[in-house]
Structures are given as C-alpha cells and as structure tokens.
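User: Can you fold this complex?
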Amino acid sequence: MARVIVVTSGKGGVGKTTTSASFASGLALRGFKTAVIDFDVGLRNLDLIMGCERRVVYDLINVVNGEANLHQALIKDKHSENLFVLPASQTRDKDALTEEGVEKVLKDLAEMGYDYIICDSPAGIERGAVMALTFADEALVVTNPEVSSIRDSDRILGILQSKSRRAKDGLEAVKEHLVVTRYSAKRVDEGEMLSYKDVHELLRVPLLGVIPESETVLQASNQGTPVIYTKESEAAEAYQDVVARFLGEERPMRFVDYERPGLLKRLFGGA
Amino acid sequence: MSKPIEFKAGTLTAMTAVVRDLDNVQLAHTLHTMLGGMGEFFAGEATIIDLSQLGKVPSRVDWSGLASLLRRYGLQPVAVKSAPEELEEGAKKAGFAVLNQAAGKTSGDKTVALEEKKKEEPPAQAELLAETASSEAAPAAAAQTMIIDRSVRSGQQIYARGADLVILGGVSNGAEIIADGSIHCYGPLRGRALAGAQGNIAARLLCTNFGPELISIAGVYRTFERGIAEKLAGKPVHAVLRPTVSKTEEEKYALSIEPLQID
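Assistant: Here's the predicted assembly.
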C-alpha cells in the first residue's frame, strides 16, 4: 500500500524542495519505489533540483486534465532506478489543480506499485498547499529555527488537522514529523538562533532530524543533484539519518553540537 | 489575492430590548418618558428584540414601525428572539433574524436573566468553529464539557458554547480558545484564552504551563506585552475574577493570576 507523504512548511524558502528531493532519493536508494510530485504549479523547482528540467514534456496538470497519462509524464531519475519525478506545470496556475484530479493521480500511482509518494508542497496556505496535503498519510514539516517559520509551520499543522482527508473522514490523524533545516550549531551556541530543542518544544511534533546549514546544499541544487548524494557532506549525512529514522531506525542526533575551537586551533588557524 | 468573501467567527455584543407589549403607540410613549425624548440615546448598538416576556400576543404586529421606533433612539434592531410561533413569520418577512426559541415560554414570570439564558441554551451544545473538523469534537451529552485531545494550532479557534473547555494538548501562539464556562489547558498555553465568554464571572482559567498572549474572564482581560512575571511564566497558573473595592461597574472585578500548586 502506497504511503502518501507531504513535505510542507507554510513559509517559503525553508528547504521543502531540497528536503523532498533528498528524502525521496534516500527512500529510493533503500530500494523503495518512490514518486515525487511537484505541487508548486506555476513556480516549478523540483525538476531543477533533481536535474531533470530538460526532460520535462508533460506535467502534473496535463495528467490531471487527462492530456497525458502517468507513464508519459513521470520522469525517471538519473541517479536511481526506483525514483520517478512528476513535475509541476510552469505555465498554469494553482487553480488548475482539482481535488478529484489529484486524488486520481495518487490512486493511479498507488496501483502502479509505488511504495512512497512524496508531495512537494508550495509555500503558503492557499490551494496548491492544501491540495498537496489533502491526501497525505504522513507529513514532513520543514521548519527553520526562527520564529516566523515556526509560526507558519504551526499554522500548516492546524490545516493538516482540519483539511486533510484523514481528518475529514475521521480516520487516524496524519502522522507528523518535524525536520529542522538550515541549522547552525555555532549560531545557536552564540545565542543568535533558536535551538532545535526550542523548535521542537514550540511545535510539539516528533523530531525526525536536523539538517545543518551547509554550502553543499546550494552547490548540489545548482548542479541538479539532490544533496543526499554529496560525499562527505554533513547535510547529506543528516538527510540519510532522516530517512533512516523515518524507516524506524534509531539514530543519534548529529551536527547539533558546536565545539568551540580550542586555543591551539585558534592560534594556528586549522581547517 | 484577497478573496471577495471571507468567513470569520466572532462574537458581537448586542443590546437586548425586552418587549412586553407590542403596541407601538404604547412603546413610543414609554420610550419617550424613559429616555426623555432624546433621539440617538444609544450609539448604534445591534439590538435583539426579546419577546420572552410578552404579555398578550397581538394578532398583528407593525414590525417596521417597531424597527423605526428603535432606530429613532439609535438602536439597530437585527433579530427577534423567543417570539411566539404565530409572530415568527411576520418578523421574518420584516427582515428580522428569528433566533432560537426558549424551551418553555416564560409568560409573565419574573425569572432572572441568568436563569433565562440557561433555558435557552440547548444542553451541552459544544461546537468547533473555523478550521476545526467537527469529527474531532467530543461533546459529551450531559457533561457540559468539551474535550479537545490534541493541540490547538495557530489560526485555529475553538469555542465551547455553554460548556467548559478542556484542552489536552497545547494552545499555540495565534490560536484562540473560548468557553462560556471555565478553561483547563494541560499543554503549554501560548495563544489567547477567553473563559466566561457570555459573562460568567465565576468562570476560571487553569493551565499547567502559562505563557499566553491574552487571557480574559467574563470580558476582564489582560495582555502580556511586557512579558509574564517570572513566578508565573511556564508554570501552573490559576486565573480567577476577584471583587475589588472599586464602586464603578467596570472595575467591580479584577483578574487575578495566581500560581497553582499541583504537586
């Protein structure tokens, strides 16, 4: 049975698409047949992050409108046999998404034997975001350690509670996971940033992982390779941890403690 | 893009005009004597015409005449409540909203206002407003308590009508919980909490982790712009209205926020 997972945040620019790409890739690397859908109609980005922008022929709206079938629209990922990308439309707007259309796409994907369907939500709480979360079984709530991002995540959690199909049908609630991104242990240590414990305490959602702020995220995005593939990158390893914890493994939190440079390191520079 | 229409839950303070006789000439005379003929005596308050104490039911009512009479003194009649069945149709035709009927019509008896209100409230009618799915409500038939066994998130509003409200989760910044009775909150209280929303001064607010944006009991409210006292912040707290020595009606009660010993 396919699990539908929405990656959402409320606020823009916090790392939803980066997280969607790496999380989907991580699941595919573990052998799960995974589809990742870009719901950001009109502002599509996921294809860029996944490095498949030149292979986009049909998109989500074409499928919803019946102008193309799923086999035509799904793009096979260049890194993994198990991962397929369904891009958003760049030329349409979010009103083109209908609840029936989205439901049918998800149902068809489930029938095609997908284990996980990742829905990359647009920012905001408007139609696109609501469509992305309506059919979710689980939600990854991506939050930066700052107050406005936390407030927006809280808002989107409320919408999950009220507008998801599970809530409306009175089924078991959508399972929520917190992913704190763009985390700087150094700035937390200096008191400039909220700690992941503060974020967790404010949102009261089980913490799935903390992704450190890292240059490799930007580099990977520019190259069209999800950051999880980057070697020797803290962000990549943190995403590996997220996938592992999602699948039920116990992993200690990494990259959350700042070690102040010792005297020798300060004197002699050091890397 | 802003929508052409939006729905927001809100409470409105309305004036109630208890009308015992629907003879407009009689009413005009009485109002003239009561208000000294001073036009615009009121300041445009929304007004509900309460007919629960109506003496004899007239065969015909001049609703528009009654409305213009009230308007003359600065009232805005919007609804009729507790109207006898035979008058409902006419009131509707005249453009009035017809509000819930009293369970038993109290003709002539001198029940005090509070009891009156109780009768009109359907038992334990608890309802969730705004974005809250109704399936999650757990209104017990007789308990007059609404229990929410999750957190209330930013942008959500919960109203326990005619009931106490128990929140087992937290209340986030930007969320609002309202009860006509008392409020109990077991998670962190960071949003707005309004107990005794219909003016019940005996309502209380109890919480285990105090950090709200605003609290109110029966309209006596407190904001925390300058922060919350250290002995209360994040701690179990009990808020209650206490009588003051002040003689004025508005300052009869003060909101007292006290630490609550729970272990």
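The helical segments of chain B are 24-35, 63-72, 85-93, 113-120. The first strand of chain B starts at residue 15 and ends at 18.
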